[in-house]
Amino acid sequence: MARVFNFSAGPAVLPEEVLQQARDELLDWHGSGTSVMEMSHRGKEFISIAEQAEADLRELMNIPANYKVLFLQGGASAQFAMVPMNLLRGRKSADYINTGEWSKKAIKEAKLYGTVNIAASSEAAKFTTAPAQTELKLDPNAAYVHYTPNETIGGVEFPYIPETGDVPLVADMSSTILSRPIDVSKYGLIYAGAQKNIGPSGLVVVIVREDLIGQTVAGTPSMCDYKIHADNGSMYNTPPTYAWYIAGLVFAMLKRNGGIKAMAEVNERKAKKLYAYIDASGGFYQNPVAVGCRSWMNVPFTLKSETLDEPFLKGAKATGLVQLKGHRSVGGMRASIYNAMPEAGVDALIAYMKEFHRTQG
Ligand SMILES: *Cc1c(COP(=O)(O)O)cnc(C)c1O
User: Fold this and answer.
1) Hey, CA dihedral for 318, 196, 299, 265, is it positive or negative?
2) Helical segments of 111-207, H only
3) Residues lining ligand 1, judged by CB closer than 6 Å?
4) The domain 17-256: what is its CATH number?
5) Beta-strand pair 115-121/93-98
6) Catalytic residues
7) pTM (predicted TM-score)
8) How distant is the alpha carbon of residue 245 from its chain centre?
9) Residue nearest to atom 2 of ligand 1 (CA)
10) Distance from the Cα of residue 66 to its chain's centroid
11) Contact assessment for residue 205 and residue 194, using Cβ atoms and an 8 Å cutoff
């Protein structure tokens, strides 16, 4: 059976070599006679898998020693609440930049714990852009500043890292982590649901500066306390062991293939050629996002007429290009082209788009 090019926004395509390795190791991991799924999380085999995954992620992202790396559950959505529970630290309010659907969900949860100051919003522009640094109305007394570097649904990516002075910067990097090098020391906390660029859904990776943890709001459950997770090596309870293992295979694969810098070069090339083709289609295909804020990872586009959507998707599927339907809130199409989408997949998509335009335009 041939594998298709899967443009799903998440759970998304995984690197084929990782799936092959997982298959080869499924019944008997390294001569242990068991699957990783069947191992005690406290046994030396799984501990070695967990520690290697963390070490590889630290190396890939150049994570400074004063940051904890946590492998938790509940996806990025659990972090929408855990961030204010842990980082308000006795302060009354936090700043949020609102750039789309994921920002809004984060804001909704933060309001359960404190006052949210909207430092900037691109809602009036229908979330087709990210505010510039000069537009941010930041409160110097805020507990932290939260933003979404890549809005997965709108396909909007910040072209810069917000400058927040002494106020810790918090980023929901679910759909952009590992897609390009970043300076982790500019952040107080980074979180990312795994199912876009890391591994299976359910797992969420949290990278947090250690001086920010241990001051939770009253009533915070143990399972929501970063300090408790950090003190227990993310094994306060049974962690999602198999997802952690797959994440580790992805990190090792990235290291083998030149790290994040090499990944970024391919990602930039993939995105550039897709946008270039859309822009050159004479309006047959359109992407609404401000050119400087176009995402490398999620490329939404509409066709000249909505009546073309169904035939486009049908023909794409027949060509082995799947999961291109746009999010229900935006409509049209969306091609998610994460790390694991090969450049050949983007080339195949562009070739199909050209052919569709030729025959249906
Ligand atoms: C996918 C996504 C989420 C939600 O992740 P879950 O694992 O479903 O909770 C949150 N934020 C962003 C930016 C995402 O892309």
Assistant:
1) negative
2) none
3) 10, 75-77, 102, 148, 152, 172, 174-175, 193, 196, 201
4) 3.40.640.10
5) parallel
6) 102, 172, 196
7) 0.98
8) 18
9) 174
10) 23
11) yes
Reported as a single tens digit per residue, the pLDDT across 231-278 is 999 999 999 999 999 999 999 999 999 999 999 999 999 999 999 999
Distance 318 CA to ligand 1 centre (A): 29
Tokens 């199409």 belong to which residue? 333
| Residue range 5-15+259-360, CATH number | 3.90.1150.10
Question: What average pLDDT does this structure show over 118-133?
Answer: 97
Pick 60 or 361 by higher pLDDT. Answer: 60
Please give the pLDDT value at position 329. 81
Domain extent listing, the chain:
5-15+259-360, 17-256
Starting from the edge strand earliest in sequence, which strands make up the sheet with 145-147, in order?
67-73, 203-209, 189-193, 169-172, 145-147, 93-98, 115-121
Q: Inform me whether the pLDDT recorded for 104 exceeds 90.
A: yes
Please state, in angstroms and rounded to a whole number, the distance separating the CA atoms of residues 195 and 190.
16
At 140 the three-state DSSP class reads: coil
pLDDT, tens digit, 9 for 90 and up, residues 68-88: 999 999 999 999 999 999 999
